[in-house]
Amino acid sequence: MTTPSLLATWTGQAFTPSPRATAASAGLFDVGQRYRVAVVAERSKRAHKAYFAALHAAFAALPEGRFHSVEQLRKTALCATGFCNEIRIACASRAEALRTVAGIAALDPHALCTVRERTVVVRTAHSQSRRAMGRERFEASRKAVLDYVAGL
User: What are the CA-CA distances from residue 121 to residues 19, 21, 85, 125, 128 (Å)?
Assistant: First the structure.
């Protein structure tokens, strides 16, 4: 079981959990027990907002029809720059591979699918949510996505 990330404030002498963290940690910790704390730097809200504003501006500047939405542009850029999961599905024929792509597209319209003979390659973008992606990885993905979009 993975322990949830809990938000706490350093007072200068101790970490004080937020009210939500206090409630969430009920039953997780034993009083008097020592626990190792991993420091996770928070992402800048300003940088986060600027990133999405830049994506919206880039989307508006692209020729109409190239991407259906800002979300599709972002997820395509994440996949193109390696911030994605990839699976390969071996099919019995090219026709089956094409049917498989149609089924995947119905389940996830943002998945990038390619057919190579009888093999389907499916790429799905990594989540950039605060919970899924820490500051360093978000910054790397943000830079890669904006560089990719600038080259379109």
Answer: 45, 41, 10, 13, 22
Residues in a beta bridge with 123: 86, 112
CA distances from 130 to 36, 39, 99 (A): 22, 15, 35
CATH number at residue 50: 3.30.1360
Which residues make beta-bridge pairs with 88? 121
The helices-and-strands tally (H runs, E runs) of the chain is 5, 5
Supply the range of the domain harboring residue 118: 45-150
- The pTM (predicted TM-score) of the whole model is 0.72
**Same domain, yes or no: 94 and 143:** yes
| pLDDT tens sequence across 5-30 | 777 888 888 888 888 877 777 778 88
- Residue by residue, DSSP assigns 51-111 as HHHHHHHHHHHSPTTS-SSHHHHHHHHHHHTT-EEEEEEE-SSHHHHHHHHHHHHHH-TT-
